[in-house]
Specification:
By secondary structure, the chain is of the alpha+beta class. Helices cover 22% and strands 24% of the residues. The protein has six helices and 17 strands. A hairpin with a 2-residue loop joins strand 5 (71-75) and strand 6 (78-82). Helix 2 packs antiparallel against helix 3.
Length: 323
């Protein structure tokens, strides 16, 4: 099987790989991965395609498409979820079951197996707060291992997997909060609806016919700087104190930095079909038939403008494949 990755990613860019292998079960996922890895180093594990930008040409690339499904209740708030399950559907499901801990992560596109890679987070919650363990197939050893939360090296939109640990996740197990009043179920469901509404207002909920939502979500992470550097910024610059191993730091708003650098919502480079979302300055969108080259050109332009204005290097959040 093969088709362009523009048909399998939320930003709708990307060329046609050499081959796409579809894994519909955990065992099939493991078998396919080992077979592909034995042949080539040019491979990609693809879930919902919500956090990557693939190049327009992908010679030799083999894609492992994760489609294994299943939700297993272990009792006392412990739930094991297969990697191919849709993340938002799972969030909605847990809220209805009265399982608290990820309700503010509703509306985020992608699959459950991809969620730990960047430790997805929003509105005060992060995946790492409820993740208990996961099963990981290691590319270098070919061995399966059960990894705990500590093993995953979670940080702000970061994990050991983003730092170079290669392989794939087959399932994820969560430990939810369950000792809550019965009325809390309704509150959880209301919170899910509220979050989806907030994300939709920012164009962050994918809709096939709305090109303003054809994106990877937030394209850049919010930069974290020293307290002394933060004091050099204008007084109206949004800042949130954070704590690092070497002392206090400050998280800044990447969206604010972009707009203050003269890049407004809806901005695009001349002749380009890639543009900033009309609703949110942090999202780069595909206005219909943009190329991956146009997306990355706009990203580099934004980085240059912010760097020139504030001396801050914005870091892309999506994975860039084939560049």
């Amino acid at each position: 099987m093969t088709q362009p990755l523009s048909e399998l990613t939320t930003i709708h860019v990307g060329g046609k790989p050499e081959r796409i292998h579809v894994a519909n079960s955990r065992d099939e996922l493991i078998s396919i991965a080992k077979d592909v890895w034995a042949r080539t180093d040019n491979w990609l594990v693809l879930g919902g395609g919500s956090n990557l930008v693939a190049a327009d040409e992908l010679p030799g690339l083999e894609v492992i498409l994760v489609r294994n499904l299943g939700v297993e209740y272990k009792g006392q708030g412990r739930v094991r979820v297969q990697a191919g399950e849709n993340w938002n559907d799972f969030v909605v499901h847990t809220a209805k079951q009265g399982l608290a801990g990820i309700e503010s992560l509703a509306g985020i596109p992608g699959t459950v197996g991809a969620a730990p890679i960047q430790n997805i987070g929003a509105y005060g919650q992060e995946l790492s707060l409820t993740l208990h363990s996961l099963e990981f197939l290691d590319f270098n050893t070919g061995e399966l291992q059960i990894m705990s939360k500590t093993d995953c090296g979670f940080g702000y939109r970061d994990s050991i997997f983003k730092q170079g640990k290669q392989g794939l996740i087959t399932w994820v197990e969560f430990q939810f909060f369950t000792d809550l009043p019965a009325a809390h179920n309704e509150l959880l469901e209301a919170r899910v609806e509220e979050v989806i509404g907030q994300r939709s207002a920012k164009g962050m909920v994918l809709e096939d016919k709305d090109h303003d939502t054809w994106s990877c979500g937030s394209f850049f992470t919010n930069p974290i700087v020293s307290e002394s550097f933060a004091k050099t910024l204008p007084l109206d610059a949004p800042q949130w104190p954070t704590e690092a191993d070497d002392g206090m730091t400050v998280k800044l708003s990447a969206a604010w930095l972009i707009e203050q650098s003269g890049i407004h919502k809806g901005f695009s480079l001349p002749g380009s079909k890639a543009a900033i979302s009309s609703k949110h300055a942090l999202a780069i969108t595909n206005r219909g038939d943009a190329t991956a080259k146009e997306v990355t050109e706009l990203a580099r332009y934004i980085q240059t403008q912010v760097s020139n204005k504030f001396g801050i290097n914005l870091v892309p959040e999506p994975n860039l494949i084939g560049f």
